[in-house]
Amino acid sequence: MDSATAAIGERLKRARSVVVLTGAGVSAESGIPTFRGPEGLWQQYKPEDLATPEAFQRDPRLVWQWYDWRRQKIARASPNPAHHALVQMERIVPEFALVTQNIDGLHRLAGSQRLIELHGCIWRMRCQAEKTVRENREVPLRIIPPRCDCGSLLRPDVVWFGEPLSVETQVQAFAVAESADVFLTVGTSALVQPAALLPAVARERGAFVVEINPTSTAITPFVDSHLQGQAGILLPKILSILSKD
Ligand code: OAD
User: Fold this and answer.
1) Quick one: which of 8, 47, 71, 154 has the fewest CB in 10 Å?
2) Is 107 a catalytic residue?
3) Residue of the nearest CA to atom 26 in ligand 1?
4) What per-residue confidence (pLDDT) applies to 27?
5) What is the spatial distance between Cα 5 and Cα 27, in angstroms, rounded to a whole number?
6) 54 CB contacts (<8 Å, ≥6 apart)?
7) What are the residue ranges of CATH 3.40.50.1220 in the chain?
8) How many CA atoms are closer than 13 Å to the CA of 195, on its beta-carbon side?
9) pLDDT tens, residue by residue, 184-214
10) Choice from 66, 70, 155, 192 to test ligand 1 binding pocket (greatest atom count within 8 A of CB)
């Protein structure tokens, strides 16, 4: 193991509060496409056609077909070593929180408990009229677009471009970031706000910020340490140091 990775493990051992921010890169090794890589979803599709309230208003069927396709892909996927390492980390660290931009539900499936899903969850639907939220795991969907018992359209319970995050979620995410001794930003291009602000906020409050990503990102110049590599390899390595007495 290289010395930088080992040093992060040792630093985590001394930390009281550890916060991890994850993005699509964490699920890449589970076979779920990221958004902005060479094979990313936003190379093939336009966000304004599929991931905005206006797109849904214009063509709910098209938007739901795309989400149904993504749900089918995610349903076939399993948590990978990165997800599992974060579950173990939560068990060891005194205060731990996982903030994710992912909507695939793989962190929960792996067993993470203190989890803040910033952008919602693809396995929930929300009634456009009543605003009620329900879990729905039907794959593939029998009827597209799905409707509530009240007759109104159901939408994916996710955050789309141009929509604010729920205030409660945002407050929780910033509160944990502010209290972190060590903050790990893993598998995110750090381009979407307000998630991308979290590492900066943590650092301003004194956290040691570590980035785990095979490539450099918008926040690489501002982190304390950049471990270049895949989350599914590096997180288990860090965990192995952290779990040693
Ligand atoms: P992106 O697709 O923008 O970035 C994924 C990052 O993961 C890139 O920086 C990759 O280099 C990195 N990566 C790829 N494979 C990896 C691996 N095995 N281990 C670690 N890192 C890896 O995805 P996000 O940053 O999550 O929002 O995107 C943020 C938001 O933009 C998403 O939540 C979504 C999207 O539009 C909404 O839909 C609102």
Assistant:
1) 47
2) no
3) 23
4) 98
5) 21
6) 48, 162
7) 1-32+80-119+165-245
8) 27
9) 999 999 999 999 999 999 999 999 999 999 9
10) 192
